[in-house]
Amino acid sequence: MALLNFKKRDAAEPRTVNPAVEAFLQGYSIEVMPRTAEKVESFRDLLPEGTRVYIAHIEGTPIGDMVATARRLAREGYPVMPHFPARIIKDKATLENWIAMYQGEAGVEQALLLAGGVAEPHGAFDSSMQLMDTGLFDKAGFKRLHVAGHPEGNRDIDPDGSFQNVEDALRWKQAFSERTDAEMALATQFAFDAKPIIAWANALKEAGITLPIHIGIAGPAKLQTLIKFAIACGVGPSLKVLQKRAMDVSKLLLPYEPTDVVSALAEHKAANPDFNITNVHFFPLGGIKTNANWAIENGGESARPANAT
Fold first, then answer.
1. pLDDT at 301 over 70
2. Each residue of 20-73: pLDDT tens digit?
3. Domain for residue 7, yes or no?
4. If you write DSSP's letter for every residue of 283-304 in order, what string do you get?
5. Residue in 309, 303, 307, 305 with CA at minimum distance from that of residue 19
6. Cβ(304)–Cβ(48) under 8 Å?
7. In angstroms, what CA-CA distances link 107 with 80, 85, 155, 176, 187?
8. Other beta carbons within 10 Å of 297
9. CATH number at residue 67
10. Which domain holds residue 136?
């Protein structure tokens, strides 16, 4: 099976919905940033009711912009999960202030905790574990905490290319989930090949890490866009796949859709119901509307937008 689907589809050609994909897409989440959310007139025209919307916190984004985006999404009826990147949070007082702002203005009660993409910490925190150890999320009554997963490893954490430090951190987070009341899951970086994703997920389960996995999937986008984001996000083997595809000019000009990787994961899930990948998390690299429409087209009636009749 090809890793990427570059077949151009006639706009008038109806899609045949794969029942396994339809089931796999139920409960999917999607990520936005304040500047991209501003371009969406109404999320209710794009997303099913109850869709979890992550708000990515990029270094330099004012916390006021983040909270305003959370408030807007909450008012439109969506559960909001803002990022808390440890390395850009100055100190415990700043973290406590962010939590209070999100809760007071948007009723937020769930968060994605991660180290963040900056090399040097801006203050007291270096990892998501340190954020969890403050006890502030428990004190504030947060019901759900997600942490990062890396199907292809993470060179920032394991410079030697192994999974050792990443797995040690996941064991700590697994233990945290067992000693607290927080509902936890892994939200992963995007990847493009189902086989290593499945192998990684199975290896975690064999190692006793049973946190549900919300697998990161890059939404429909131009190949050039995917390469740019893959480089920025440190995607490894998948970047090599994209670079190989980019050598073919005809494929370079055609849009990418995540059909193959999602279908392969969905079929594996259908055949193995206890598979620990439970949800899809979309990175809308080609635009929120484009991604949302792909999900609707592939998810059937159950993935209709909130305003659909």
1. no
2. 999 999 999 999 999 999 999 999 999 998 999 999 998 899 999 999 999 999
3. no
4. E-TT-HHHHHHHHHHHHGGGG-
5. 303
6. yes
7. 9, 20, 35, 24, 22
8. 14
9. 3.20.20.220
10. 19-220+257-303
